[in-house]
C-alpha cells in the first residue's frame, strides 16, 4: 500500500501417453511433443495436472506431511506475528491474514493503540466477505490512498479516497476499484467511482477527480509482454473511452505508466517508459492530456534509475556515465537540484560509490534526510545524508544509523516523507525473529523504539548461522550463508541433510531473514539450510548482476555449483544428502543444476520455473526478460540453448529425484514450463514428483492454507529423499 506522495507445434500426445521418440536433447526444429501442455486451462492439460497432483498426494501424504502442514499453518496464521503498518493520515493501515481470515482484512488503528500489545483494529475491507458475496477468490494486491490537499487537511478533511487492487486467484492481472475510506464502501460507477477491469496495469491518482490509467484498452494497446503500452488521463464521470492519451509507447516497449507526485509545493506529473528491463526513460509532463501537453525527458542514461524528492533529483547508475568531463562509476548514487538539471547543469554530487565489497541496496527519503542502505559483503550498513538548503547550496552532511549486527538484515522505510523524519526499521536474521522499530531523530540524535517483536517459532538454542565464501570456476569468491546445529554447520557431525537455496538474477540480493517455516520444518528436525549469493543477483551491485547476464548466465550456475562443492568439502553434507531449491528465475537455476550438475545433488525442487528457453519469450510475460536472458529467435539461441534445461535433458542420463511445482493461475511464468519438463522426464521413467496449485499466481498460493500445503509438499519431498 502506498499513500501519496509517493505458433504452436502440431505433434500431440494425449495425457499420459508416451511418444517413445522424444529427441535427446530436444531439437527445436522438431515439433515439441508436449506443446499441448501449454494450453493452461485446456481440458486435457488440467486432466494431466489432476492426475499428477493425485499421484504426488499419494506419494507424499501421511503423518509427516500432515505434521509439517499443521506446523507451517500455525506460523502463517499466528496472531503474534508482526502486523506491519503504513501511515495514512492519523491512521496506521495493515493487511492481515490468519485462520479466520484466509483472504484477509484491510484494517486500521491509531499509533497509540498500535503501541499496545492488543491494538484495536477497525476493519476497512473484508476480502473473505467480498469473495463470498461476489463468488470470486480475491487476492489482495494493495491500495493507493490519495493525500488530501493542504487546504483540505487544514479544514479537517479526512483521507477518504483509495484505489484498491484485487486479483482473481492470485494472477498478476487484477482489477482496481475506488474505495471510500470513511464510508468503507466501494464507490459505484453510477456515482462516478473509478473502476478498471481485469488486466495487467493499474490506476494512479492525479487528483480527487482524475486518475492515470494504464491497462488493456483493446487490440494494439499491450506490449509483447502483455503489459500496458498506453497511458491515459481519465476524469471522473466520463467514459474510459474518452480518456485523453498522455503517452503511447512503441510495439517493442515493455511497460508504460504515469504517476503524480503530490508533495505540497513540488507537485509533478511523470511518465515512465520501460523499454526493457534495465532500460527506461522518465518524462516530466506539463498540462497532461491537453493540446498544450509537453513532455520533457530527464536526460540520464537509459540504464539509470531516477527518483525525485522535493528539490532533488537522484540518479542510480547501472553503467558508467561520462558527462560534463567526469566519469561516474556503475553502482553510484548521484544527486543534483532538479530544476538546475533540467536547465542543463550537470553538477552532480556523488552520494555513494561502490567498492569491491560494497553496493547500494536502497535509499529512502524522509522530510529532510536521505537514509542510504549499503551492503558490505551482504551485510547492511545505514548512513544518513542531509542535503544542503537551496538555493544557497553546499556539501551534503553524513551521519550513521547504527542498527543491526552481524548476519542481520536491516530494512528502512519512511513513515511519512512529506511531514516527518521518522523511519520504520525492520531487523531480522536467520535465527533472530523480526523486530519492527520506529526511529525518530534521524539525522540528529536517533532513537529507536521497538514497537513489535515477532515470536520465536522454533527453538534456536544450539543452532548457529555462519557466512562462508566458495571459489567459483573463474576464481570469484562467492558468499553464502549456512544455518543449522553447531556440530552440523562445523562439519563435525555430518554429512547432514542440507537444502541449498538460490536465485541469482535481476539484480536482486538475497539477505538473511527469519523464517518460522524453515525453522520448524527443517532446522528443528536436524536439517541444514544454506543460501548462495551467486552472480546475477545484486549483492555486489550492478557488476555482480551483469557478470551473469545473457551469454554469461553460466557464471551463476558455476557459482552455485561451487557453493554445493564447498558444503561437501567442509563435511557439512554429501551429494546424496544435498538438495537444492529455486523459484522463478531460481527455477531456471534449479533446472540447470538438475541437467548440468546432476551428480552434485540428491534432490532438486524446481518452483514456478522457466525451463524452455526456446519458447519462453512467447509465453506470457517472457518477452520482458530478454534483456536478462537473450532473444531465442535470433543468434542468441546459440548461448541460450546451453542453459535451456528442456533442451539439455538427455533420457539416457541419471538424474536426482525432482519436484516440480507451479500454479495454473501464474500469468507471469507460464505453467507450461514445469508441465512440459515433468512430462518429458516422466516419459523416460525418471523420479519426478509434480504439484500444480490451481490458484496462487506466481507466488504459488492464494491463502495460508494453500501456502502451508505447498510448503509441506516441499519439505516432505526433501525429507523423503535426503533424510535417510
UniProtKB/TrEMBL annotation:
Biased composition (Polar residues): 1-17
Domain Peptidase S9A N-terminal: 23-386
Domain Peptidase S9 prolyl oligopeptidase catalytic residue range list: 522-723
Swiss-Prot/TrEMBL keywords: Hydrolase, Protease, Serine protease
GO biological process: proteolysis
Region of interest (Disordered), ranges: 1-25
GO molecular function: oligopeptidase activity; serine-type endopeptidase activity
Record PANTHER family: PROLYL ENDOPEPTIDASE
Protein name: Prolyl oligopeptidase family serine peptidase
Species annotation: Antribacter soli
Amino acid at each position: 500500500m502506498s499513500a501519496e506522495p509517493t505458433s504452436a507445434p502440431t505433434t500431440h500426445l494425449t495425457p499420459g501417453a508416451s511418444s517413445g521418440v522424444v529427441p535427446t536433447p530436444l531439437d527445436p526444429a522438431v515439433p515439441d511433443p508436449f506443446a499441448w501442455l501449454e494450453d493452461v486451462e485446456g481440458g486435457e492439460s488440467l486432466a494431466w495436472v489432476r492426475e499428477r497432483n493425485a499421484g504426488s498426494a499419494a506419494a507424499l501424504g501421511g503423518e509427516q506431511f500432515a505434521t509439517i502442514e499443521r506446523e507451517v499453518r500455525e506460523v502463517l496464521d499466528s496472531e503474534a506475528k508482526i502486523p506491519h503498518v503504513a501511515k495514512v493520515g492519523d491512521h496506521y493501515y495493515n493487511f492481515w491474514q490468519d485462520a479466520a481470515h484466509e483472504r484477509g482484512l484491510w484494517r486500521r488503528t491509531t499509533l497509540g493503540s498500535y503501541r499496545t500489545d492488543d491494538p484495536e483494529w477497525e476493519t476497512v475491507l473484508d476480502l473473505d466477505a467480498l469473495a463470498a458475496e461476489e463468488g470470486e477468490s480475491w487476492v489482495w494486491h494493495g491500495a493507493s490512498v490519495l493525500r488530501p490537499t493542504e487546504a483540505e487537511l487544514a479544514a479537517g478533511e479526512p483521507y477518504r479516497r483509495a484505489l484498491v487492487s484485487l486479483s482473481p486467484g492470485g494472477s498478476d492481472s487484477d482489477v482496481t476499484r475506488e474505495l471510500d475510506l470513511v464510508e468503507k464502501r466501494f464507490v459505484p460507477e453510477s456515482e462516478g467511482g473509478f473502476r478498471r477491469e481485469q488486466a495487467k496495469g493499474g490506476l494512479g491518482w492525479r487528483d480527487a477527480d482524475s486518475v492515470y490509467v494504464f491497462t488493456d484498452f483493446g487490440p494494439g494497446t499491450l506490449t509483447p509482454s502483455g503489459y500496458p503500452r498506453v497511458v491515459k488521463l481519465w476524469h471522473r464521470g466520463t467514459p474510459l473511452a474518452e480518456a485523453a492519451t498522455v503517452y503511447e509507447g512503441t510495439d517493442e516497449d515493455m511497460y508504460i505508466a504515469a504517476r503524480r507526485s503530490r508533495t505540497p509545493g513540488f507537485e509533478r506529473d511523470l511518465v515512465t517508459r520501460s523499454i526493457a528491463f534495465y532500460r527506461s526513460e522518465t518524462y516530466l509532463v506539463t498540462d497532461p492530456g491537453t493540446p498544450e501537453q509537453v513532455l520533457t525527458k530527464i536526460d540520464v542514461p537509459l540504464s539509470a534509475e531516477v527518483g525525485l524528492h522535493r528539490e532533488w533529483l537522484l540518479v542510480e547508475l547501472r553503467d558508467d556515465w561520462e558527462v560534463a568531463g567526469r566519469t561516474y562509476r556503475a553502482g553510484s548514487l548521484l544527486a543534483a537540484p532538479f530544476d538546475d538539471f533540467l536547465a542543463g547543469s550537470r553538477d552532480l554530487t556523488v552520494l555513494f560509490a561502490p567498492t569491491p565489497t560494497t553496493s547500494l541496496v536502497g535509499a529512502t527519503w524522509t522530510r529532510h534526510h536521505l537514509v542510504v542502505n549499503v551492503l558490505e559483503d551482504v551485510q547492511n550498513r545505514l548512513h544518513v545524508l542531509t542535503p544542503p538548503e537551496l538555493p544557497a547550496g553546499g556539501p551534503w552532511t553524513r551521519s550513521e544509523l547504527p542498527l543491526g549486527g552481524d548476519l542481520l538484515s536491516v530494512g528502512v522505510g519512511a513513515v511519512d516523507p512529506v511531514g516527518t523524519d521518522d523511519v520504520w526499521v525492520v531487523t531480522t536474521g536467520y535465527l533472530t525473529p523480526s523486530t519492527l522499530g520506529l526511529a525518530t531523530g534521524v539525522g540528529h540524535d536517533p532513537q529507536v523504539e521497538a514497537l513489535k517483536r515477532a515470536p520465536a517459532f522454533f527453538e534456536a538454542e544450539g543452532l548457529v548461522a555462519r557466512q562462508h565464501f566458495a571459489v567459483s570456476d573463474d576464481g570469484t569468491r562467492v558468499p553464502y550463508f549456512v544455518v543449522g546445529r553447531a556440530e552440523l554447520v562445523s562439519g563435525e557431525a555430518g554429512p547432514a541433510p542440507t537444502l541449498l537455496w538460490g536465485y541469482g538474477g535481476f539484480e536482486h540480493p538475497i539477505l538473511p531473514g527469519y523464517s518460522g517455516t524453515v525453522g520448524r520444518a527443517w532446522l528443528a528436525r536436524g536439517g541444514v539450510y544454506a543460501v548462495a549469493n551467486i552472480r546475477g543477483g545484486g549483492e555486489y551491485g550492478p557488476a555482480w548482476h551483469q557478470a551473469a547476464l545473457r551469454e554469461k548466465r553460466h557464471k551463476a550456475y558455476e557459482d552455485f555449483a561451487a557453493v554445493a562443492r564447498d558444503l561437501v568439502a567442509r563435511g557439512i553434507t554429501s551429494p546424496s544428502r544435498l538438495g537444492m531449491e529455486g523459484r522463478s528465475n531460481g527455477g531456471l537455476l534449479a533446472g540447470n543444476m538438475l541437467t548440468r550438475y546432476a551428480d552434485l545433488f540428491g534432490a532438486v525442487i524446481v518452483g514456478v520455473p522457466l525451463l524452455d528457453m526456446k519458447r519462453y519469450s512467447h509465453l506470457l510475460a517472457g518477452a520482458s526478460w530478454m534483456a536478462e536472458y537473450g532473444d531465442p529467435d535470433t543468434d542468441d539461441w546459440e548461448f541460450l540453448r546451453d542453459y535451456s534445461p528442456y533442451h539439455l535433458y538427455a533420457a539416457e542420463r541419471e538424474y536426482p529425484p525432482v519436484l516440480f511445482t507451479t500454479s495454473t493461475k501464474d500469468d507471469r511464468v507460464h505453467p507450461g514450463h514445469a508441465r512440459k519438463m515433468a512430462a518429458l522426464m516422466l516419459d523416460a521413467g525418471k523420479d519426478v514428483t509434480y504439484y500444480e496449485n490451481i490458484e496462487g499466481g506466481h507466488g504459488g498460493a492464494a491463502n495460508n492454507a494453500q501456502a502451508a500445503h505447498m510448503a509441506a509438499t516441499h519439505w516432505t519431498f526433501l525429507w523423503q529423499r535426503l533424510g535417510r
